[in-house]
From TrEMBL:
<dbReference type="GO" id="GO:0005829">
    <property type="term" value="C:cytosol"/>
</dbReference>
<dbReference type="GO" id="GO:0019740">
    <property type="term" value="P:nitrogen utilization"/>
</dbReference>
<comment type="similarity">
    <text>Belongs to the RutC family.</text>
</comment>
<protein>
    <recommendedName>
        <fullName>3-aminoacrylate deaminase RutC</fullName>
        <ecNumber>3.5.-.-</ecNumber>
    </recommendedName>
</protein>
<dbReference type="Pfam" id="PF01042">
    <property type="entry name" value="Ribonuc_L-PSP"/>
</dbReference>
<dbReference type="GO" id="GO:0006212">
    <property type="term" value="P:uracil catabolic process"/>
</dbReference>
<dbReference type="InterPro" id="IPR019897">
    <property type="entry name" value="RidA_CS"/>
</dbReference>
<keyword id="KW-0378">Hydrolase</keyword>
<dbReference type="InterPro" id="IPR035959">
    <property type="entry name" value="RutC-like_sf"/>
</dbReference>
<dbReference type="GO" id="GO:0019239">
    <property type="term" value="F:deaminase activity"/>
</dbReference>
<dbReference type="InterPro" id="IPR019898">
    <property type="entry name" value="RutC"/>
</dbReference>
<comment type="function">
    <text>Involved in pyrimidine catabolism. Catalyzes the deamination of 3-aminoacrylate to malonic semialdehyde, a reaction that can also occur spontaneously. RutC may facilitate the reaction and modulate the metabolic fitness, rather than catalyzing essential functions.</text>
</comment>
<dbReference type="InterPro" id="IPR006175">
    <property type="entry name" value="YjgF/YER057c/UK114"/>
</dbReference>
């Protein structure tokens, strides 16, 4: 199966050369997702919980556009700017993965825009029924 780009309706041009997601062989790879608005400005400045919710909603949209749902997520790569935000990020994260949790890692690092507190990249296995985009 050739790869298909996954671009949810209303997606704006990214700040770098990438697409929101790629579907290949029933697996959706979601690019690193930052808490950006339609103009690529950081939303909810200073609020790690609200930024995490925004990021996970964006990821959810990419996965749903490909034909899956959040229960299909198998792996998340989480990047945070400060361990002080870890508890707030995890509280929101747990809302999006209430049952069996996906595997993941979390590291502290700098992000592309200083006001961004969290970035998440995701892999979801949706099988062969995904519609692509």
């Amino acid at each position: 199966m050739p790869k298909q780009v996954v671009i949810p309706p209303g997606t704006t041009t990214p700040i770098a050369p990438f697409v929101p997601g790629t579907l290949a062989d029933g697996v959706v790879y979601v690019s690193g997702t930052l808490p950006f608005d339609a103009d690529n400005n950081v939303v909810h400045v200073g609020d790690p919980a609200a930024q995490t919710r925004h990021v996970l909603e964006t990821i959810k949209t990419v996965i749903e556009t490909a034909g899956g749902n959040m229960a299909d997520v198998t792996f998340n790569s989480i990047f945070i700017t400060d361990w002080a935000h870890y508890a707030a990020i995890n509280q929101v994260y747990a809302e999006y993965f209430p049952g069996d949790k996906p595997a993941r890692f979390c590291i502290q690092c700098g992000l592309v825009k200083p006001d961004a507190l969290v970035e998440i990249a995701t892999i979801a296995h949706i099988g062969t029924a995904g519609s692509g985009a």
